[in-house]
Amino acid sequence: MKKIIILLLIFQFTFAQIPHLSGEISISIKNGTIESNLEYSNVPKIKNYSLWLNSGLNLRYLRDAEDKFNYPNIKYYDDEKSAEAFQYYIPDGDIKIRLLPEKFKINYVGKFPVISDTLKANNRGDWKGNIAFNGKSIRATEQSAWYPIIYDIDNDVVASKVTYDLTVNCTDCSTIYLNGSAPKKGDSVNFKSNQPISLLLFAGIFDFTKNKNTFFINTNLKPEQETVLSNWTDKIIKFYENNLRIPYGNHVTYLYTTPISKKNAWMFVTYPTVAIIGPEKYNVKSYFSDKTNELNDAANIEYFAHELGHYYFGTVIEPNSELRWIFLEGITEYLALQTIKEVLGENNYKRKIAEYLVEVKELNPKPLSIIKNNEISESYRYYYVPLLLTALEKEIGKEKVWNWLQTILKSDKTTKTDYAFFKSSIIKSGISENDFLKFETKYILTENAKENVIKVVK
Ligand SMILES: [Zn+2]
């Protein structure tokens, strides 16, 4: 018994510890450079770890906290874990043993293409994990590992959330924004956060406004339009809070910027920032009527509903393991679908279901029970999963699906979101094993699973 308690304490201690990042980051949006001189402290005691750093950044050194000696480091690449980053570790004498000091210094530098002229830009090739210099700004998210990120290999936990005391210098910027802090005018700004947060950096030449409690960064919306977007946001958040029974965290920040490719246009979340990326003609303003200041097409709310849903599936729990995409994108899209029904009504809901059905036409879905993370295509995660969960809803009732989602959100931080968890969490939420087996047989395991799903959701 004692042993169990001690183990439990160590276990909790390890993950209660939030790494702290301090130091200076110098960037130039004209030259596409990043130079960082940082110190990591309060580093969790993890034996089997790697340190992620974007593959375009060059390590000058990993150094001891007292600034006396450099650590040796081993560098490798594992695109199953991160396509964007190289992985490093400090060998502890033996090359196989990994040493992670409680405190260390890290210094690195990198230069990236500045793509201000979209004429010579690629058609596609911008994404959340890109470090994007578009001539007017830098955009970099935690997915890019533009700052060093500690990865716990055994638990499959990416510790991208840090507390920080960081000074960002950018002589060719007018404004700097670091996620978790308010945007600030100036070319050298110190940011501090005691709340652990994933770091999104957006610095350059742009303006921002504050409407009630929401920041609008580079969106150029009229105050009336900001209010319209804020009201929709409140409506969606209230719906999620009521059904998931977990209060939404901080107020969101809306951020708009252009991509470094010709055609990419998408949205993403690094909570609490909701970023809208797209060419000028798809900027946030383009969503609104210039005359009425209302949304041109209320159906656009579905994109915001999806992104806002990532507070729960993406921040409250951070899915990992074999069903990462199912829990991260599939469930979030299912949440957006419920929002559409609630705030836009039955017709829009039916239209959305019909859209999903078109998107999965060519899909030959591998059963959830054996699919691997890298086999979960976009049409699987964004369109098939919401249909599959709608089938679950038809069988067990909507209330029970919400109960299940609440159960997932209350699960331990180190939970692996794999098929065993999919099953155990459904049963834990109050569905009998027998009912689960019936659902599993009909909609997951049988050869006709897809046909059965399509039949029941129509
Ligand atoms: Zn998403």
From TrEMBL:
Natural source organism: Flavobacterium dankookense
Gene3D superfamilies: Neutral Protease Domain 2 (1.10.390.10)
Highest taxon of source: Bacteria
Protein name stated in the entry: Peptidase M1 membrane alanine aminopeptidase domain-containing protein
